TrEMBL record:
The chain crosses the membrane at residues 20-37, 43-67, 87-111, 123-146, 158-180, 232-251. This is ABC transporter permease. The lineage of its organism: Bacteria, Pseudomonadati, Bacteroidota, Flavobacteriia, Flavobacteriales. Keywords: Membrane, Transmembrane, Transmembrane helix. It comes from the Bacteria. It comes from Croceimicrobium hydrocarbonivorans.
Amino acid sequence: MNKVFKYCFLDLIRSRWTLAYGLFFILSSGGLLYLSGDSSKVVVSLMNVIILLVPLISMIYGMMYMYQVRDYVEILLAQPISRKSIFGGYILGLSAALSICVVLGLLIPLLFFDPQQIFQAQWLMLIGISVILTIIFCILASFLVLKHENRLKGFGIGLFIWLFLAVIYDGLFLVILVAFEAYPVEQMALGLTLANPVDMGRVLLIFQLDYSALMGYTGAIFEKFFGTLQGTVIIGFAYLLWIGFPSWLLLRKAQLKDF
């Protein structure tokens, strides 16, 4: 697995597209920090970019790369290497390369313009959410490539998954809350939030920025949940499920697939 990871990581980190991805975040965060003197406002702006862009790029770029190396993977499968090592190495390499681009893209301008903010909870949370979303959507992208040999179908399903989790889900969430406003929906709202990694990241960042008061009574319920040790453990477990279950599906599909 280590050799596959090293090959995949070095191949991606030298790619012009990967470098452009990191440069985009350097310019975005650097420009916002230069134009605004309030780091909290910068985090809000970057949150909106990251919540939408990181899952999309991780999904599309991950699928493009995995489809590109598909023939090479089939050659590796003919060698005395376990399928778990091959696909595990590729997932780790893909996730690590894209995560490093995002992390450096956020940290380099921060170190230059406002280095004392680097250990603030809001920036650490922003970086952590970026890495977690990158890993989740890279795993989903790899699974779709393995499941669908037709590239058009694979990309179509991948785009729909991103659109549903990042955009459509919020609309359905609001419709459900409005439809059942006469009933106690706090627990259901918490459950629906935990069912979507993008929404979890957005809510966690909102509470780090102390904007929960803008959410009214629902915000108070969320703050009571997310501010406790039990809530933190549940959120961590939910993210582990979002990483672990797709990984298990991917490795199981790799073991059973006839190449």
